[in-house]
Request: fold
Amino acid sequence: MRRNSKRDTQEKRSRFEKEKFKSVAPRVLKLALPYKKALGFGFIALCLASGINLLFPYLIRLALNEQIGFQLDKDLSKLTFLLIFLFALQASLFYLRHYFFWSVGYRVVATLKKRLYEAMINQDIAFFDSSRTGDLLNRLSADTELVKQAVTVNISVALRYILQVIGGV
Reply:
């Protein structure tokens, strides 16, 4: 009996978090709209880097099957230089993706912190009498840090994996 109530509580919490995410996600994305150009560049870099990542096994397969004009005993150095070039290009594209997504994430969080701080400052004095200011500021920092993590890392990684699954098929 106790185990079921624990599971029910976890399921309710999970449903609540999903509903909360559905209501919060559009508002966070709305904050990122002014930076759609940077997000677009980040997405392009992400697509290209994921495409290169999918290209490595394909090139090696072709080289092993000698279908791209490589004769492994003669042209191994050409294949090696091609792969090194592709690794360097992929690393550069992943850097650009990281740069663009993180810069947008920091800007969104700065905007969010500013809005939340202004909303907090405009509260009545009674609000500050009933709430500890240190706790409010701590929550403001912690919650906006979670938003930054979601905007920068989670979206980028999810898009990368989706592209790799689609491209790998």
